[in-house]
């Protein structure tokens, strides 16, 4: 079984300051990390393999990343966490990529690798948070997709996943191959073993593929989106605040909930 | 000249820091109060390869060398000196002595489980009448057929009560003195005749156990002689030499934490209507801390580089321990002053840091011994011989 995990490298949010008053994000320290949603995706893949080693049949975990040369570090961390091989999809032609182009680049890489039984990615990344890579990739590959997954297991003939459904959860069965996007909170990532960290840089390789290797022409790489300007979302509406003694506040809260018909 | 860390070490530091901040820092106060580094924590560190950082992967280690080990010690030192001490005695002197002087068979049997953290190690040199004067040890080992019979009592042995494997220094020929008369032995603590006496009630590093180890007719096979017979003094000197660099690294972490806490606190604490961070008295203290810390950082990692590239390092390692412990002392003292009465409170981590730091000027060769080691090496080319 081959599980492919597309990952993303983002700026470390600890190195940036968000200034709402100036409508700008200041980068104090330009440091890059393997983004938390991607770590969760790797964790989900590792758990699947570990929980059903026989069903996974000597599973091979492959990490992919569309990014600049520095994304090599994100892939090394993916190797340290437990991926078996890593591919950096890097080309000048990818630099203007929107999420649609990114999905096409990833899809081309999945096909070049000979396809996948499962593709697991984060539900959304910590920076743009578009949440589109997984679904667009599933479309490009013609695979089933299950988004916002909290739990997954390999069962005979397919995959069982628990995903968010309204205020609750539902179980979904899918035939393989399929694309999963996972909820970051549901898969807190493991720490990589120290020896794997050393080997990730000293022993193991990251393969780089460009547009030519992936057989992507200009048409496939032209973005649909164009960047005009960035702006901040409106400030969060904070709820009503109550003051007073605990018993009084409880009454006030109850009255407010009744007024909104949340409780009777 | 490139002063940046290779990328594997950058990632290693980031991961270790996350482990320390998430898994150890929240426990540090409890570890100090309850006098125990939880065994689950040690198992977790072991499962991540952290109980064997410097050793080759072929012997169950992480392959991180002294540089990797110093990074670990520094990051542990930032959050919990008790844990640093448990890991330090295990890696830095116990497993290290087997790594440096062990036969292939000894490494297979003892180093691998130690490096994997399946066994815990301790190092038994100090005795009631032999501290800085290590040659004054009284524990004896007498040959009996294919075995040695060891008798004696070791004191202040870090990890003594939790160790599976302990390296014991014993007199094998009292007529030969330090060089020739002392031999190192690998002893399994499950051996009949090995027992734990009292545990020390210490001022600091209270989570790390310091035990009296009693050996009464403990029999070890002759294969467990570590290093050359009669050359135990060299075995422990070599291990201690390397251990000193990582001690400096632990101090570096403690000093860095003290400085960071002082900056954060002085920003919060207001007196005379302004944060004390605006006061020149605080600026001076913080700046002095920074200078000390940066000088120590350079010394520690240059020494680690000397060790990893197999260059002479005895003086530099002694300097790491001497300067590191003094920097940790100065920084924890200044941090306590900046924190005022709060820093004197048991509820403040500055108070724990201050207590924990004090031992670093004493253990693994007092700072006075480090000065003698440095002087002996400095004077040797001039034909002046100073016994160490």
Helix-strand pattern of chain A, N to C? EEEEEHHEHEHEHEEEEHEHHH
Instruction: Using the CA coordinates, give the radius of gyration of chain B.
Output: 21 Å
CATH-assigned homologous superfamily of chain A: HUPs
Any idea how many domains of chain A?
Answer: 1
Give the H and E element order of chain B.
HHHHHHEEEEHEEEEHEEHHHH
Overall 3D shape of chain A: globular
User: Sheet with the most strands of chain B?
Assistant: 4 strands, mixed
Helix-strand blueprint:
The complex is a heterodimer of chains A (264) and B (388).
Chain A: E1 2-7, E2 9-11, E3 16-19, E4 24-27, E5 32-34, H1 36-51, H2 53-56, E6 60-66, H3 72-81, E7 85-89, H4 99-112, E8 118-122, H5 133-141, E9 144-155, E10 158-165, E11 168-175, E12 178-182, H6 194-202, E13 206-209, H7 211-214, H8 218-221, H9 246-259
Parallel strand pairs in A: 1-6, 1-8, 6-7, 7-13, 8-12, 9-12
Antiparallel strand pairs in A: 2-5, 3-4, 9-10, 10-11
Helix pairs in contact in A: 3-6, 4-5
Chain B: H1 7-24, H2 28-34, H3 39-47, H4 65-79, H5 81-101, H6 104-115, E1 121-124, E2 140-144, E3 147-158, E4 165-171, H7 178-181, E5 182-188, E6 194-199, E7 210-221, E8 225-226, H8 232-268, E9 270-271, E10 274-275, H9 280-308, H10 314-339, H11 349-358, H12 367-379
Parallel strand pairs in B: 1-4
Antiparallel strand pairs in B: 2-3, 3-7, 4-5, 5-8, 6-7, 9-10
Helix pairs in contact in B: 1-4, 4-5, 4-8, 4-9, 5-6, 5-8, 8-9, 8-10, 9-10, 10-11, 10-12
């Amino acid at each position: 079984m081959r599980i492919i995990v597309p990952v993303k490298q983002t700026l470390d949010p600890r190195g940036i300051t968000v200034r709402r008053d100036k409508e700008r994000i200041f980068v104090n320290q330009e440091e890059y990390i393997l983004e938390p949603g991607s770590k969760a995706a790797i964790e989900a893949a590792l758990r699947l393999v570990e929980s059903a080693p026989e069903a996974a049949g000597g599973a091979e975990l492959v990490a992919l990343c569309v990014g600049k040369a520095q994304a090599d570090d994100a892939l090394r961390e993916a190797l340290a966490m437990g991926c078996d091989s890593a591919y950096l999809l890097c080309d000048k032609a990818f630099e203007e990529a929107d999420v649609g182009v990114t999905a096409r680049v990833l899809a081309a890489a999945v096909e070049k690798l000979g396809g996948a039984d499962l593709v697991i990615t984060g539900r959304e990344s910590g920076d743009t948070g578009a949440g589109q890579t997984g679904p667009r990739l599933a479309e490009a590959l013609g695979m089933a997709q299950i988004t916002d997954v909290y739990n997954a297991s390999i069962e005979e003939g397919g995959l069982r996943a628990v995903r968010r459904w309204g205020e609750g959860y539902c179980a979904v069965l899918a035939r393989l191959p399929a694309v999963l996007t996972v909820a970051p909170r549901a898969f807190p990532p493991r720490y990589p073993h120290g020896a794997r960290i050393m080997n990730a840089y000293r022993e193991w390789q990251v393969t780089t593929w460009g547009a030519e290797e992936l057989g992507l022409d200009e048409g496939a790489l032209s973005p649909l989106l164009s960047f005009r300007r960035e702006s901040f979302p409106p400030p969060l509406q904070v709820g009503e605040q109550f003051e007073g003694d605990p018993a009084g506040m409880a009454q006030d809260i109850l009255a407010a909930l009744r007024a909104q018909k949340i409780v009777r | 000249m490139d002063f940046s860390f290779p990328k594997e070490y950058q990632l290693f530091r980031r991961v270790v820091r996350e482990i320390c901040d998430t898994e150890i820092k929240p426990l540090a106060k409890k570890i100090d109060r309850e006098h125990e580094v939880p065994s689950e924590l040690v198992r977790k560190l072991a499962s991540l390869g952290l109980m064997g950082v410097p050793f080759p992967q072929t012997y169950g280690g992480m392959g991180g060398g002294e540089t990797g080990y110093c990074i670990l010690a520094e990051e542990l030192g930032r959050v919990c000196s008790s844990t640093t001490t448990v890991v330090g005695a295990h890696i830095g002197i116990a497993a290290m002595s087997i790594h440096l002087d062990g036969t292939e068979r000894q490494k297979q049997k003892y180093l691998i489980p130690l490096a994997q953290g399946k066994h815990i190690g301790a190092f038994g040199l100090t005795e009631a009448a032999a501290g800085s004067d290590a040659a004054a040890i009284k524990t004896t080992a007498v040959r009996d057929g294919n075995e040695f019979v060891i008798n004696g009592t070791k004191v202040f042995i870090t990890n003594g009560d939790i160790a599976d494997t302990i390296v014991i220094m014993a007199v094998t020929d009292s007529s030969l003195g330090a060089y020739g008369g002392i031999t190192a032995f690998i002893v399994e603590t499950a051996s009949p005749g090995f027992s734990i006496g009292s545990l020390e009630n210490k001022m600091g590093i209270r989570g790390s156990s310091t035990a009296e180890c009693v050996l009464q007719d403990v029999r070890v096979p002759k294969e467990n002689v570590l290093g050359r017979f009669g050359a135990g003094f060299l075995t422990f000197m070599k291990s201690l030499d390397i251990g000193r660099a990582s001690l400096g690294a632990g101090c570096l972490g403690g000093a860095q934490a003290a400085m960071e806490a002082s900056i954060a606190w002085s920003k919060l604490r207001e007196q005379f209507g302004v944060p004390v961070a605006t006061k020149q008295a605080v600026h001076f203290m913080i700046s002095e801390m920074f200078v000390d810390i940066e000088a120590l950082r350079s010394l520690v990692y240059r020494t680690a580089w000397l060790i990893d590239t197999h260059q002479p390092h005895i003086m530099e390692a002694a300097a790491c321990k001497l300067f590191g412990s003094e920097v940790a002392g100065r920084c924890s003292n200044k941090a306590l002053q900046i924190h005022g009465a709060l820093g004197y409170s048991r509820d403040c981590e500055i108070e724990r840091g201050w207590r924990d730091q004090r031992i670093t000027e004493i253990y693994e060769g007092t700072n006075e011994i480090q000065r003698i080691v440095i002087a002996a090496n400095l004077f040797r080319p001039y034909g002046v011989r100073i016994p160490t």
